[in-house]
Amino acid sequence: MLETISPTFQVGKWAERRVGLQLPSVESWTRFAVGLVVRVDATRPGAQELTCDIAGRPVRALLYTDLMPPASPGDKLILNTAALDANLGTGGQALAVSPLPPADDAAPLPIVDGGFLVKARYTPLQAVVRGVDEQTSPHHETLAEADQLDGMPVVTADLHSALPAIVAGILADRPDLRIVYIMSDGAALPLAYSRTVAQLKAAGALAATITAGQAFGGDFEATTVHSALLAARLVVEADIAVVIQGPGNLGTGTRWGFSGVAVGEAVNAAGVLGGQPVGALRVSGADARARHRGLSHHSITAYGQVAQHPCLLPIPTPPTQLTRSRANQSQIDEIRQEQLAHGQAGQGQATRGQAGQGQAAHAQAGQGQATHAQAGQGQANPTNVTGGEPSQGQLWQGEATDLAELVAGIVRDLAPIVEPKGRHRAVMVATDGLMDALRASPVPLSTMGRTLDQDPAAFITSAAAGRQAATLT
Q1: Which CATH superfamily groups domain 13-99?
Q2: How much is the pLDDT for 218?
Q3: Angle formed at CA 445 by CA 67 and CA 246, multiple of 5 degrees
Q4: CA nearest 251: which of 213, 289, 215?
Q5: How far apart are CA 246 and CA 220, in angstroms?
Q6: 142 burial class (0-12, 13-18, 19+ CB within 10 angstroms)?
Q7: Are 293 and 369 in contact (CB under 8 A)?
Q8: Share of the chain above pLDDT 90, in %
Q9: What's CA 243's distance to the chain center, in Å?
Q10: What's the whole-model pTM score?
Q11: Where are the domains of the chain?
Q12: Chain centroid to CA 145: how far?
Protein backbone atom coordinates (compact mmCIF):
# COMPACT_ATOMS: atom_id res chain seq x y z
CA MET A 1 0.00 0.00 0.00
CA LEU A 2 1.29 3.42 -0.96
CA GLU A 3 0.88 5.92 1.84
CA THR A 4 2.11 9.49 1.94
CA ILE A 5 1.80 11.95 4.79
CA SER A 6 2.80 15.53 4.17
CA PRO A 7 5.47 16.98 6.46
CA THR A 8 4.80 19.37 9.28
CA PHE A 9 5.53 22.97 8.38
CA GLN A 10 7.12 25.04 11.15
CA VAL A 11 6.66 28.79 11.01
CA GLY A 12 10.08 30.46 10.98
CA LYS A 13 11.59 32.90 13.47
CA TRP A 14 11.32 35.70 10.91
CA ALA A 15 7.55 35.37 10.83
CA GLU A 16 7.41 35.29 14.62
CA ARG A 17 9.41 38.52 14.85
CA ARG A 18 7.27 40.23 12.20
CA VAL A 19 3.98 39.28 13.84
CA GLY A 20 5.27 39.83 17.36
CA LEU A 21 3.85 36.65 18.87
CA GLN A 22 4.60 32.95 19.10
CA LEU A 23 2.82 31.24 16.23
CA PRO A 24 1.80 27.59 16.41
CA SER A 25 3.03 24.93 14.04
CA VAL A 26 0.82 24.55 10.97
CA GLU A 27 0.20 20.90 10.24
CA SER A 28 -1.69 19.39 7.35
CA TRP A 29 -1.74 15.87 6.02
CA THR A 30 -3.28 13.59 3.49
CA ARG A 31 -3.09 9.90 2.70
CA PHE A 32 -3.01 8.04 -0.59
CA ALA A 33 -3.39 4.34 -1.19
CA VAL A 34 -3.47 2.05 -4.19
CA GLY A 35 -6.82 0.34 -4.58
CA LEU A 36 -7.88 -2.48 -6.90
CA VAL A 37 -11.35 -1.96 -8.40
CA VAL A 38 -13.47 -4.97 -7.41
CA ARG A 39 -16.75 -3.82 -8.87
CA VAL A 40 -18.73 -0.81 -10.09
CA ASP A 41 -21.65 -0.44 -7.68
CA ALA A 42 -23.50 2.47 -9.26
CA THR A 43 -23.16 5.20 -11.83
CA ARG A 44 -24.75 8.59 -12.17
CA PRO A 45 -23.95 11.62 -14.30
CA GLY A 46 -20.38 12.62 -13.48
CA ALA A 47 -19.58 9.85 -11.00
CA GLN A 48 -18.98 6.16 -10.41
CA GLU A 49 -19.43 4.45 -7.05
CA LEU A 50 -16.88 1.67 -6.68
CA THR A 51 -15.82 -1.05 -4.30
CA CYS A 52 -12.03 -1.23 -4.12
CA ASP A 53 -9.61 -3.48 -2.30
CA ILE A 54 -6.79 -1.84 -0.35
CA ALA A 55 -4.41 -4.49 0.95
CA GLY A 56 -7.27 -6.88 1.64
CA ARG A 57 -9.62 -4.22 3.06
CA PRO A 58 -12.81 -3.48 1.07
CA VAL A 59 -13.37 0.25 0.68
CA ARG A 60 -16.12 2.28 -0.94
CA ALA A 61 -14.70 4.77 -3.42
CA LEU A 62 -15.99 7.55 -5.65
CA LEU A 63 -14.57 8.43 -9.05
CA TYR A 64 -15.52 11.63 -10.87
CA THR A 65 -15.82 10.88 -14.57
CA ASP A 66 -15.61 14.60 -15.33
CA LEU A 67 -12.02 14.49 -14.09
CA MET A 68 -10.72 11.08 -15.24
CA PRO A 69 -11.77 8.11 -17.36
CA PRO A 70 -14.30 5.66 -15.87
CA ALA A 71 -12.84 2.62 -14.11
CA SER A 72 -13.55 -1.07 -14.63
CA PRO A 73 -13.03 -4.12 -12.40
CA GLY A 74 -9.35 -4.98 -12.30
CA ASP A 75 -8.13 -1.40 -12.70
CA LYS A 76 -5.78 0.06 -10.13
CA LEU A 77 -6.45 3.54 -8.79
CA ILE A 78 -4.63 5.98 -6.56
CA LEU A 79 -7.15 6.78 -3.83
CA ASN A 80 -7.23 9.65 -1.35
CA THR A 81 -8.22 8.01 1.96
CA ALA A 82 -7.55 10.90 4.39
CA ALA A 83 -11.13 11.70 5.42
CA LEU A 84 -12.05 8.01 5.40
CA ASP A 85 -9.16 7.10 7.69
CA ALA A 86 -9.93 10.03 10.00
CA ASN A 87 -13.57 8.85 10.26
CA LEU A 88 -14.88 12.33 9.41
CA GLY A 89 -18.47 13.10 8.50
CA THR A 90 -17.39 13.62 4.90
CA GLY A 91 -15.24 10.51 4.97
CA GLY A 92 -17.52 7.64 4.05
CA GLN A 93 -15.63 7.02 0.81
CA ALA A 94 -12.17 7.12 -0.65
CA LEU A 95 -11.78 9.45 -3.61
CA ALA A 96 -10.13 8.40 -6.85
CA VAL A 97 -7.17 10.58 -7.79
CA SER A 98 -5.75 8.88 -10.86
CA PRO A 99 -5.41 5.51 -12.59
CA LEU A 100 -2.21 3.64 -11.67
CA PRO A 101 -0.43 3.29 -13.92
CA PRO A 102 -2.19 5.63 -16.36
CA ALA A 103 -3.64 3.46 -19.09
CA ASP A 104 -1.87 4.15 -22.37
CA ASP A 105 -4.97 3.29 -24.35
CA ALA A 106 -7.43 5.18 -22.11
CA ALA A 107 -9.75 7.42 -24.08
CA PRO A 108 -8.88 11.04 -23.38
CA LEU A 109 -11.48 13.18 -21.70
CA PRO A 110 -13.23 15.61 -24.06
CA ILE A 111 -11.72 19.06 -24.24
CA VAL A 112 -14.15 21.84 -23.46
CA ASP A 113 -14.28 23.88 -26.64
CA GLY A 114 -13.70 27.50 -25.72
CA GLY A 115 -14.14 27.04 -21.98
CA PHE A 116 -11.72 28.87 -19.75
CA LEU A 117 -13.32 28.92 -16.29
CA VAL A 118 -11.12 26.97 -13.91
CA LYS A 119 -12.85 25.42 -10.90
CA ALA A 120 -11.13 23.92 -7.84
CA ARG A 121 -8.33 26.22 -8.93
CA TYR A 122 -4.67 25.28 -8.34
CA THR A 123 -5.51 21.83 -7.04
CA PRO A 124 -4.14 18.82 -8.94
CA LEU A 125 -7.63 18.00 -10.19
CA GLN A 126 -8.71 21.51 -11.19
CA ALA A 127 -11.48 21.39 -13.77
CA VAL A 128 -11.66 23.64 -16.84
CA VAL A 129 -15.26 24.30 -17.82
CA ARG A 130 -17.22 26.63 -20.04
CA GLY A 131 -18.99 29.26 -17.97
CA VAL A 132 -22.49 30.35 -18.80
CA ASP A 133 -21.27 33.94 -18.36
CA GLU A 134 -17.86 33.76 -20.08
CA GLN A 135 -17.12 35.51 -23.37
CA THR A 136 -17.38 32.38 -25.54
CA SER A 137 -20.73 31.35 -24.09
CA PRO A 138 -23.81 31.74 -26.27
CA HIS A 139 -25.43 33.37 -23.24
CA HIS A 140 -22.72 35.95 -22.66
CA GLU A 141 -24.60 38.75 -24.38
CA THR A 142 -27.73 37.99 -22.33
CA LEU A 143 -25.81 38.15 -19.07
CA ALA A 144 -23.22 40.83 -19.85
CA GLU A 145 -25.21 43.77 -18.49
CA ALA A 146 -27.96 41.89 -16.67
CA ASP A 147 -28.68 42.85 -13.08
CA GLN A 148 -32.35 42.05 -12.48
CA LEU A 149 -34.15 38.88 -11.41
CA ASP A 150 -37.56 40.52 -11.87
CA GLY A 151 -38.76 39.41 -8.45
CA MET A 152 -37.87 35.73 -8.83
CA PRO A 153 -38.17 33.96 -5.46
CA VAL A 154 -34.84 32.63 -4.20
CA VAL A 155 -34.88 30.05 -1.39
CA THR A 156 -31.72 29.77 0.71
CA ALA A 157 -30.81 27.06 3.21
CA ASP A 158 -27.89 25.89 5.34
CA LEU A 159 -27.80 22.13 4.75
CA HIS A 160 -27.86 20.24 1.45
CA SER A 161 -30.40 17.86 3.00
CA ALA A 162 -32.96 20.69 2.92
CA LEU A 163 -33.04 20.65 -0.90
CA PRO A 164 -35.52 17.79 -1.50
CA ALA A 165 -37.81 19.10 1.25
CA ILE A 166 -37.85 22.60 -0.25
CA VAL A 167 -38.58 21.14 -3.68
CA ALA A 168 -41.40 19.03 -2.21
CA GLY A 169 -42.91 22.14 -0.62
CA ILE A 170 -42.81 24.06 -3.89
CA LEU A 171 -44.31 21.30 -5.98
CA ALA A 172 -46.98 20.36 -3.41
CA ASP A 173 -49.11 23.30 -4.54
CA ARG A 174 -47.46 24.32 -7.82
CA PRO A 175 -46.22 21.28 -9.77
CA ASP A 176 -45.93 23.48 -12.86
CA LEU A 177 -43.06 25.62 -11.55
CA ARG A 178 -39.54 25.42 -12.98
CA ILE A 179 -37.00 25.03 -10.18
CA VAL A 180 -33.27 25.59 -10.63
CA TYR A 181 -30.80 24.42 -8.02
CA ILE A 182 -27.69 26.56 -7.55
CA MET A 183 -24.90 24.79 -5.70
CA SER A 184 -22.52 27.18 -3.96
CA ASP A 185 -18.96 26.22 -3.09
CA GLY A 186 -19.00 26.07 0.72
CA ALA A 187 -18.97 22.27 0.89
CA ALA A 188 -18.55 19.60 -1.80
CA LEU A 189 -17.23 21.10 -5.02
CA PRO A 190 -18.28 18.40 -7.53
CA LEU A 191 -22.04 18.41 -8.00
CA ALA A 192 -21.75 14.74 -9.00
CA TYR A 193 -21.12 13.91 -5.34
CA SER A 194 -24.80 14.55 -4.58
CA ARG A 195 -27.09 11.54 -5.06
CA THR A 196 -29.92 13.87 -4.07
CA VAL A 197 -29.45 16.10 -7.09
CA ALA A 198 -29.12 13.15 -9.46
CA GLN A 199 -32.38 11.65 -8.19
CA LEU A 200 -34.28 14.95 -8.25
CA LYS A 201 -33.17 15.55 -11.83
CA ALA A 202 -34.08 12.01 -12.88
CA ALA A 203 -37.55 12.53 -11.40
CA GLY A 204 -38.02 15.78 -13.33
CA ALA A 205 -38.23 17.86 -10.14
CA LEU A 206 -35.38 20.18 -11.17
CA ALA A 207 -35.34 22.06 -14.47
CA ALA A 208 -31.55 22.57 -14.30
CA THR A 209 -28.55 22.82 -12.01
CA ILE A 210 -25.94 25.59 -11.88
CA THR A 211 -22.64 25.30 -10.03
CA ALA A 212 -21.26 28.59 -8.73
CA GLY A 213 -17.82 29.72 -7.65
CA GLN A 214 -15.37 26.83 -7.28
CA ALA A 215 -18.14 24.22 -7.50
CA PHE A 216 -18.43 22.40 -10.83
CA GLY A 217 -20.45 19.80 -12.69
CA GLY A 218 -23.82 21.52 -13.10
CA ASP A 219 -25.79 21.86 -16.31
CA PHE A 220 -24.39 25.39 -16.33
CA GLU A 221 -21.23 26.76 -14.74
CA ALA A 222 -21.20 30.23 -13.21
CA THR A 223 -18.47 32.43 -11.78
CA THR A 224 -20.44 33.64 -8.76
CA VAL A 225 -23.77 33.08 -7.03
CA HIS A 226 -24.85 36.40 -8.55
CA SER A 227 -24.21 35.28 -12.12
CA ALA A 228 -25.74 31.89 -11.33
CA LEU A 229 -28.96 33.57 -10.17
CA LEU A 230 -29.08 35.69 -13.32
CA ALA A 231 -28.50 32.61 -15.47
CA ALA A 232 -31.27 30.75 -13.65
CA ARG A 233 -33.72 33.52 -14.42
CA LEU A 234 -32.62 34.72 -17.85
CA VAL A 235 -31.16 31.58 -19.42
CA VAL A 236 -33.11 28.72 -17.86
CA GLU A 237 -36.24 30.85 -17.27
CA ALA A 238 -36.62 29.55 -13.74
CA ASP A 239 -39.67 30.37 -11.66
CA ILE A 240 -37.76 29.72 -8.42
CA ALA A 241 -34.08 29.29 -7.63
CA VAL A 242 -32.81 27.35 -4.62
CA VAL A 243 -29.30 28.22 -3.37
CA ILE A 244 -27.65 25.71 -1.03
CA GLN A 245 -24.13 24.42 -0.57
CA GLY A 246 -23.38 20.85 -1.57
CA PRO A 247 -23.05 17.89 0.82
CA GLY A 248 -20.41 18.19 3.50
CA ASN A 249 -21.37 21.15 5.68
CA LEU A 250 -18.42 22.23 7.82
CA GLY A 251 -18.98 23.35 11.40
CA THR A 252 -16.74 23.96 14.41
CA GLY A 253 -19.23 24.63 17.20
CA THR A 254 -18.45 28.37 17.09
CA ARG A 255 -20.62 31.30 16.13
CA TRP A 256 -18.81 32.05 12.88
CA GLY A 257 -16.98 28.85 12.08
CA PHE A 258 -19.45 27.08 9.81
CA SER A 259 -19.81 27.02 6.05
CA GLY A 260 -23.50 27.91 6.25
CA VAL A 261 -22.68 31.59 6.85
CA ALA A 262 -22.85 31.73 3.04
CA VAL A 263 -26.64 31.56 3.40
CA GLY A 264 -26.61 35.22 4.40
CA GLU A 265 -24.49 36.12 1.37
CA ALA A 266 -26.96 34.31 -0.89
CA VAL A 267 -29.77 36.40 0.60
CA ASN A 268 -27.77 39.54 -0.16
CA ALA A 269 -27.10 38.40 -3.72
CA ALA A 270 -30.78 37.70 -4.35
CA GLY A 271 -31.81 41.00 -2.81
CA VAL A 272 -29.34 43.22 -4.66
CA LEU A 273 -30.44 41.65 -7.96
CA GLY A 274 -34.12 42.30 -7.34
CA GLY A 275 -35.15 38.82 -6.27
CA GLN A 276 -37.33 37.81 -3.35
CA PRO A 277 -35.20 35.97 -0.77
CA VAL A 278 -36.95 33.29 1.28
CA GLY A 279 -34.83 31.87 4.10
CA ALA A 280 -35.37 28.25 5.05
CA LEU A 281 -34.67 27.93 8.76
CA ARG A 282 -32.52 25.16 10.17
CA VAL A 283 -34.74 23.55 12.79
CA SER A 284 -34.61 20.23 14.62
CA GLY A 285 -36.75 18.53 17.22
CA ALA A 286 -34.28 15.69 17.70
CA ASP A 287 -30.71 16.97 17.43
CA ALA A 288 -28.71 15.96 20.49
CA ARG A 289 -26.72 19.21 20.33
CA ALA A 290 -28.43 22.05 22.19
CA ARG A 291 -27.14 24.67 19.73
CA HIS A 292 -29.06 22.99 16.90
CA ARG A 293 -32.21 21.92 18.80
CA GLY A 294 -35.22 24.05 18.01
CA LEU A 295 -33.92 26.94 15.88
CA SER A 296 -30.23 26.40 15.08
CA HIS A 297 -27.72 29.09 15.95
CA HIS A 298 -26.59 28.81 12.31
CA SER A 299 -29.85 30.43 11.18
CA ILE A 300 -29.61 33.18 13.76
CA THR A 301 -26.07 34.09 12.67
CA ALA A 302 -26.54 33.77 8.90
CA TYR A 303 -29.88 35.58 8.68
CA GLY A 304 -29.49 37.86 11.67
CA GLN A 305 -25.95 39.15 11.08
CA VAL A 306 -24.76 38.25 7.57
CA ALA A 307 -27.94 38.87 5.58
CA GLN A 308 -28.28 42.62 5.22
CA HIS A 309 -31.13 42.53 2.71
CA PRO A 310 -34.65 41.83 4.07
CA CYS A 311 -35.97 38.35 3.49
CA LEU A 312 -38.96 36.25 4.43
CA LEU A 313 -38.45 33.64 7.15
CA PRO A 314 -41.25 31.04 7.03
CA ILE A 315 -42.34 29.36 10.27
CA PRO A 316 -44.44 26.18 9.98
CA THR A 317 -47.74 25.93 11.83
CA PRO A 318 -49.62 22.74 12.80
CA PRO A 319 -51.76 20.90 10.27
CA THR A 320 -55.37 21.82 10.98
CA GLN A 321 -56.44 18.17 11.13
CA LEU A 322 -54.35 17.49 14.25
CA THR A 323 -55.94 17.70 17.67
CA ARG A 324 -53.71 20.15 19.48
CA SER A 325 -53.21 20.60 23.19
CA ARG A 326 -53.67 23.86 25.06
CA ALA A 327 -49.96 24.22 25.78
CA ASN A 328 -48.74 27.29 23.91
CA GLN A 329 -51.64 26.91 21.47
CA SER A 330 -52.67 30.47 22.27
CA GLN A 331 -49.48 31.59 20.53
CA ILE A 332 -50.51 30.01 17.24
CA ASP A 333 -54.14 31.10 17.60
CA GLU A 334 -53.01 34.67 18.28
CA ILE A 335 -50.99 34.65 15.07
CA ARG A 336 -54.01 33.47 13.09
CA GLN A 337 -56.25 36.09 14.73
CA GLU A 338 -53.74 38.79 13.82
CA GLN A 339 -53.82 37.58 10.24
CA LEU A 340 -57.59 38.01 10.10
CA ALA A 341 -57.46 41.35 11.91
CA HIS A 342 -55.10 42.72 9.28
CA GLY A 343 -57.33 41.50 6.48
CA GLN A 344 -54.53 39.46 5.01
CA ALA A 345 -56.48 36.30 4.25
CA GLY A 346 -58.59 35.95 1.13
CA GLN A 347 -57.14 38.92 -0.76
CA GLY A 348 -55.38 37.17 -3.61
CA GLN A 349 -51.89 36.06 -4.35
CA ALA A 350 -48.88 38.23 -3.80
CA THR A 351 -47.01 39.57 -6.80
CA ARG A 352 -43.29 39.55 -7.33
CA GLY A 353 -41.25 42.33 -5.81
CA GLN A 354 -43.20 42.59 -2.55
CA ALA A 355 -40.85 40.68 -0.27
CA GLY A 356 -39.76 42.78 2.68
CA GLN A 357 -42.26 45.54 1.79
CA GLY A 358 -45.29 44.68 3.88
CA GLN A 359 -46.45 41.52 2.13
CA ALA A 360 -47.15 38.54 4.29
CA ALA A 361 -50.27 36.59 3.40
CA HIS A 362 -51.55 34.91 0.29
CA ALA A 363 -55.03 33.67 -0.17
CA GLN A 364 -55.33 30.36 -1.76
CA ALA A 365 -56.52 28.58 1.35
CA GLY A 366 -59.03 25.93 0.47
CA GLN A 367 -57.04 25.07 -2.67
CA GLY A 368 -54.11 23.43 -0.91
CA GLN A 369 -52.21 26.74 -0.69
CA ALA A 370 -50.81 28.00 2.58
CA THR A 371 -51.98 31.18 4.26
CA HIS A 372 -49.43 33.33 6.00
CA ALA A 373 -49.29 35.95 8.71
CA GLN A 374 -46.66 37.98 10.43
CA ALA A 375 -45.02 36.51 13.49
CA GLY A 376 -43.27 38.30 16.29
CA GLN A 377 -45.85 41.11 16.67
CA GLY A 378 -48.17 40.79 19.64
CA GLN A 379 -46.74 37.44 20.72
CA ALA A 380 -46.74 36.46 24.34
CA ASN A 381 -43.33 35.46 25.61
CA PRO A 382 -43.15 31.82 24.52
CA THR A 383 -40.91 29.27 26.11
CA ASN A 384 -37.64 28.65 24.32
CA VAL A 385 -37.50 24.88 23.90
CA THR A 386 -33.92 24.68 22.64
CA GLY A 387 -32.89 23.39 26.05
CA GLY A 388 -35.54 20.65 26.17
CA GLU A 389 -35.51 17.13 24.88
CA PRO A 390 -38.52 16.57 22.59
CA SER A 391 -38.73 12.89 21.73
CA GLN A 392 -37.84 11.82 18.22
CA GLY A 393 -40.66 11.34 15.78
CA GLN A 394 -43.35 13.17 17.77
CA LEU A 395 -43.34 16.55 16.06
CA TRP A 396 -45.96 16.79 13.31
CA GLN A 397 -47.11 13.28 14.09
CA GLY A 398 -49.78 13.77 16.70
CA GLU A 399 -48.02 15.12 19.79
CA ALA A 400 -49.18 18.71 19.53
CA THR A 401 -47.57 19.89 22.74
CA ASP A 402 -44.11 19.40 21.28
CA LEU A 403 -45.16 21.07 18.05
CA ALA A 404 -46.66 24.11 19.73
CA GLU A 405 -43.63 24.50 21.96
CA LEU A 406 -41.27 24.20 19.00
CA VAL A 407 -43.12 26.86 17.02
CA ALA A 408 -43.25 29.13 20.06
CA GLY A 409 -39.51 28.71 20.54
CA ILE A 410 -38.81 29.58 16.91
CA VAL A 411 -40.95 32.70 17.18
CA ARG A 412 -39.14 33.78 20.31
CA ASP A 413 -35.65 33.14 18.94
CA LEU A 414 -36.41 34.97 15.70
CA ALA A 415 -37.89 38.02 17.45
CA PRO A 416 -34.65 40.09 17.49
CA ILE A 417 -34.09 39.74 13.73
CA VAL A 418 -37.64 40.08 12.37
CA GLU A 419 -40.10 42.96 12.32
CA PRO A 420 -40.77 45.04 14.30
CA LYS A 421 -37.26 44.79 15.80
CA GLY A 422 -35.27 43.47 12.86
CA ARG A 423 -35.07 43.77 9.08
CA HIS A 424 -36.62 40.43 8.13
CA ARG A 425 -40.26 39.34 8.09
CA ALA A 426 -41.51 36.14 9.72
CA VAL A 427 -44.47 34.48 8.03
CA MET A 428 -46.55 31.60 9.32
CA VAL A 429 -47.07 28.83 6.78
CA ALA A 430 -49.75 26.17 7.10
CA THR A 431 -48.34 22.67 6.80
CA ASP A 432 -51.47 20.79 5.76
CA GLY A 433 -50.48 18.20 3.19
CA LEU A 434 -46.75 18.76 3.48
CA MET A 435 -46.02 15.49 5.30
CA ASP A 436 -47.68 13.62 2.44
CA ALA A 437 -45.60 15.61 -0.05
CA LEU A 438 -42.43 14.80 1.87
CA ARG A 439 -43.24 11.11 2.02
CA ALA A 440 -43.76 11.17 -1.75
CA SER A 441 -40.32 12.67 -2.38
CA PRO A 442 -38.31 10.77 -5.00
CA VAL A 443 -35.29 11.21 -2.72
CA PRO A 444 -34.91 9.46 0.66
CA LEU A 445 -34.95 12.23 3.25
CA SER A 446 -32.09 12.30 5.75
CA THR A 447 -30.42 15.10 7.69
CA MET A 448 -27.41 14.53 9.93
CA GLY A 449 -28.31 10.83 9.86
CA ARG A 450 -31.93 11.36 10.91
CA THR A 451 -34.87 10.36 8.73
CA LEU A 452 -38.21 12.08 8.21
CA ASP A 453 -39.82 9.99 10.94
CA GLN A 454 -36.98 10.69 13.36
CA ASP A 455 -36.85 14.46 12.84
CA PRO A 456 -39.89 15.65 10.88
CA ALA A 457 -39.50 19.24 12.11
CA ALA A 458 -36.30 19.64 10.10
CA PHE A 459 -37.96 18.71 6.83
CA ILE A 460 -41.37 20.30 7.39
CA THR A 461 -39.68 23.66 8.08
CA SER A 462 -37.79 23.47 4.78
CA ALA A 463 -40.93 22.39 2.96
CA ALA A 464 -42.76 25.39 4.43
CA ALA A 465 -40.12 27.66 2.90
CA GLY A 466 -40.73 26.03 -0.47
CA ARG A 467 -44.48 26.45 -0.12
CA GLN A 468 -44.03 30.12 0.78
CA ALA A 469 -41.77 30.70 -2.24
CA ALA A 470 -44.35 29.13 -4.54
CA THR A 471 -46.88 31.79 -3.55
CA LEU A 472 -44.55 34.55 -4.73
CA THR A 473 -44.41 33.53 -8.39
Answers
A1: Nucleic acid-binding proteins (2.40.50.140)
A2: 95
A3: 35
A4: 289
A5: 15
A6: middle
A7: no
A8: 52
A9: 6
A10: 0.77
A11: 13-99, 153-470
A12: 28
